[in-house]
Input
Amino acid sequence: MIILEQILNGVQFGLTLFLMSAGLTLIFGIMGVINLAHGSLYMIGAYAAALTAVRTGSVWLALVGGLAAAALGGIVIEFAVVRRLYVRNHLDQVLATFALVLIINQGANMLFGRQPLFVAMPPALSGSVTLLPGLTYPVYRLLVIAVGATVAAGLFAMIHWTRIGMLVRAGATHRQMVRALGVNVALLYTAVFGIGALLAGLAGVIAGPITSVQVGMGEQVLILAFVVVVIGGLGSVRGAFFGAIAAGLVDTLSRAFLPTLFRQIMDGSNADALASGMSAISIYLLMALVLLMRSQDLLAEKS
Output
């Protein structure tokens, strides 16, 4: 049963990564912008939800507050900074959005300090349920899996089966033609950026009770999200989903079982040190393996 439990943990972590990488792949693949500030939107959502929960004691108000703060932050960033970077090269985009990371982190540090905020688990979601004989699993983690899967299905449907999705896909490849047909491309891109920011904020909201909320929490997750985007392919929501699940499973299973495996062939201290190092780079090894085995990224969209 320990294997099934770790698989569920991997799926839960993977779906959290998907919420981050889905917005990133839309912005990067469709709009051509490398947004290093995406992790800061994750942090904004987490802080807003944590502070709202402390002030009001309401889970629903915390959820709404976190999503609203992240989406509003994304729209402001797009309107004030990113909109001027669409026609600039990637180096300018990296420098500008990295400056935003520094500004937002220092602002959060001045407002909230360096001490992490620990978010209490909602009482209704703090228990566990028995899935199989001998397998109990936290209700909150099951909720995270359900939310991630629902968002993935809804996002895929929106991109492929709605008018908004059609305009997004058309604007990515034929921007001038879409503009000539009377579509406000600038407003469309702002909407896409806002959706990406909202997804990052949702990831921050649901991660708060599992980890902790602190300054700079978005940077490490951002690196993993970029790995998922590379594995899944730029602009591919479906690829981001499967890439995130694969990354979550590889990371979780390697951390859970590599120490035991290495102890079978070497002494305990060396085994733990090697297992720790291998677990830390397991996702990057997966990315390298995918890039070596395939000329195109996993499930990349065909032109």
In short: The first strand starts at residue 128 and ends at 132.
